[in-house]
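Format notes (please read before filing issues)

Several people have asked whether sequences and structure tokens are stored in separate files. They are not. Every record keeps both together, in the order shown below: the sequence lines, then the token lines. Line labels are part of the format and must not be stripped during preprocessing.
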Amino acid sequence: MKTIKISITALLAVLSLFPLSSMAAEAGHEIMDLTQNWVGYTAIGIFVIAYMLVMAEEFTHLRKSKPVIIAAGLIWAIIGAVYMNHGMSDLAEHAVRHNLLEYAELMLFLLVAMTYINAMEERQVFDALRAWLIQKGYGFRKLFWMTGFLAFFISPVADNLTTALLMCAVVLSVGGSNTRFVSIACVNIVVAANAGGAFSPFGDITTLMVWQKGVVDFWTFFALFIPSVVNFVIPAAIMHFAIPQDQPDASNETVHMKRGARRIISLFLLTIATAVSFHNFLGLPPVIGMLTGLGYLQLMGFYLKKTPHKCRELASHNAEHEGQMGDPVPFDIFNKVARAEWDTLLFFYGVVLCVGGLGFLGYLSMASEIMYNQWGATSANIAVGVLSAIVDNIPVMFAVLTMQPDMSTGQWLLVTMTAGVGGSLLSIGSAAGVALMGQARGQYTFFSHMKWAPAIALGYAASIVCHMWINSSYF
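Then the structure lines:
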């Protein structure tokens, strides 16, 4: 402990040697502008290095949460040391607690949603859907459109990553070694899943952040439905003519959902309704409604655990339902919680704290001045979409929300849409694209996606024009 105290004292002594600019200090205790100071430059450098490691995850296999968590700690350590040295540590503490609260609300919300998705996966809901599609024996072109539309309409409820993986499994099962079909179908699935997630508060983390921040009402998001359809349909219509007209063989595979699957689906829809009601009618954070919905699932899990005999009775009366008995291990809700995408949740923590720290230093105010005052809101929001194809849309959207530019509802809807669908421009621009490159390795690649970038960009531009036309009343 003594060594730690000496180290902190030494750090504060070193920090005090550096002049700090724009300090509205002692009396008023205003936040310091450190954008032109070594403190700000160091924080930017730490964040850039961390994000370079995030972008290199595919090659280094270093999970993306690790560098940003460390970066968040280092950035706030520097901020805390500087503010403590100037007798204003309470300001830094208040700021970091505010960021932590914002993260906690979103993390718990996502955790509940992921738990439900994992429960439905364990009950073989998605496997049953995949088997049903394969049984139909559709031609490649029909399957191309069906997987696209299913990705578009499932992703507003389930997350776009899960949706994309499910549809890709169907494509791989049917397409097999037909690389041309698999490649184009995967591009279509990524575009559709991202577009579908853009018009629903539950479809993507960025839309969820906008809704929880309260800048757009729940039902107002659905004004983006037609622009999202345009974003998906235009590239799909262009890619349609490149799909081979072959007819793959139908499969006889049959998958039965396990007992309780339909009830869990119903409880998930009830949980969404509860979250919306808590927010719209009671003025409470949506996360309270989601956590209440987790209680629904816990009770359902308790019922399944206490009534295993019903599985045996069902199987004994009808051999067709033998698969519904499930595993010998009883349904356990905490196994579903453990299987949540913890790397994504922890990555989100690092991003929120890093961007919050840069905002506290003054960089987001600077960026807001350049983008929204000099460029104009429309140009800035379109640029956000393009940027999200290179950088993950989570930090981009969180930065915009932290800036809190004075915009109309139409502009908030625009940036919500562009941040969601802009990631489709490149295969690395969204979680769905990155995941499918791994699932369809060698068939769906960065360059096979890049080949269709002009068609995707056309859909991106058309969706913006469509939104500004049909939703002009929101501007």
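For reference, the curators noted about this record: Residues 192 and 232 are 5 Å apart (CA to CA). The radius of gyration is 24 Å.
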